Amino acid sequence: MATFKPGLVHTPVTPFKRDHGIDFDTYGKLLEFHLRHGADALALPLPQGEDLSLTDAELRTLLEFAVKQVKGRVPVLAHVNDAGTGIAVERARHAEAAGAAAIVSHPPYFWHPKANMVVEHIVQVGAATRLPFFICSPPVEDVGTPLTTEITLQVLERLDNLAGVVDASMDWVFMAEAISLARNTRAEFQLLPGTDYMVSAGVLGGAGAFSPLSGVAPKLVREVYDLCAKQQFTQARKAQEDIAALHHLVKRAGFAGLKGAMRAMGRDCGQPRPPVRALGEIEYGKLAQEIGAMDFLRAEPRGW
Amino acid sequence: MSITLKGVMQAPVTPLKADYSLDADGFAKMVDFHVRHGAPAIAWPHHKAESLNLTIAERKLGAEVAVKTVAGRVPVSIFVGTLSEEDSLDIARHARKIGADMILAISPYCRRPSQEEIFDSIVRIGTATDLPLLTYNSPWRNGEGVEFTGELTHRLIDRLPNYIGMKDASFHSEKFLEISRVALRMRPGFAIIMGVEHLLASFPLGACGSFSSSGAIAPNLCNKFYASLVANDWELARECQYKVSRLWRLFKEQYPSSLKGAMIMMGRPVGPTRSPLPTATRERIDFLRQQLEELNILQTEPHGW
What we know:
Chain A is of the alpha/beta class. Chain A is about 45% helix and about 10% strand.
């Protein structure tokens, strides 16, 4: 299998209407925005796309809609994730049939599974299709199941289509171990930062990136990505610090923060779906004011 | 001495005799070994030195041996972290008296301290002497550990003119950048020193060096690694980081038992490890020998003192 290298992957949010239904008109505009502003690929719906709040039918419809909208201009990676292995397997098969270019999946959550259970789940999801397969490592503070180096190496032994890890743990020990040891088995094994913190992952040997903030600051994201791709890690520090400042601001308000920041940039994607709390107008006003005070965002596109 | 902190700084283990008592002569040899092999600073007693298994009297004695042995060749940092803040204050004042160059502090462990409690504790320790102060950021998963957030770091820099740097053991992109982008803006010379050699991920973002885990085994590798970072030779730096990471995988469990076992194998008799940590078994040492040979460490690094 030729190595699939997704490059800079934008991870769109999922817009909702006031009645909490998916707003497909806005989603179409959003996908076009990402395509016009530097996405080498799209991955959806990741946690910032509120995947856990979508029904099985909605997840399938959303993917089909995105593939149709994109029309092959860039690869579309399907995030296939569920607590139940069988459900995730079926969704992976659907993603392949719908035209996804690759599958991205997390370790199963909720069950506090032991390592061998995690390996079995991931292997079954990965083996459900012949598409390139990426495992996501969740953030360290997440309630989800952590992805360890040992689990990664065991999955690698069993899955020919395992292309790499998308790392949202931001854990340097895991990243350094996973990439160096996995490449002893598979030289083309990839490490992609799953957040917008690209410098550390890049200098450790990673390539590509998943970018949650691409809907807010696509130029800044592209700047750091390009500098890392050219191995100019020291030169990327200032822009990486700007991204960190934006990340910090958005994170304070949770999922609603990302949509709030997008609204402040003129791209209103509605509020998160319950039970995720929406931003009140006072909170939004404060967030918008802080976004407005970030000088480095002046060069970023406003509106659609 | 004006203090410049950069490079792979060495944190010696604590040699013990067969009866588990402190081997002061062995410790002097250990410190001197590090200085002769390029250590740009000496820091003692970190956890690698079994700090919490040493009495306060032993810690003072070891600090005196370290300062005397180094004799001004490089800066000496004394770690003052203890279970009781009173002991930390006592060790800090002692460090000042014997001529140490700086202290490294963490608020007392095992209590899940709030950010306010950490702030108050560090201010008390940091104002107990006029020595330059480093703090030790040790966040664990799920809110355990002692975490210095960016906001807390900001407040401490604002409050303490002698606050010159941080040992960071977060090993985490987001946490590191929260500290670095605040601290380096407020105090440009602020030294962010990685807890062990996870230097590659942090150096382009402003880290100045690390306290070493593997320097007791592979000082040449440490020095080569740092030189490659300064030269922005990322390919060589990556090769060194991967090797150091493999060493860390070998040594991190029941740290520093395996490390001490490997040191003995390399002709530096540092004795057993105090309970509750186990002492490396013969089988473990044989396994380490095989691993270190495979990594080309035994063939390229110094043996003996």
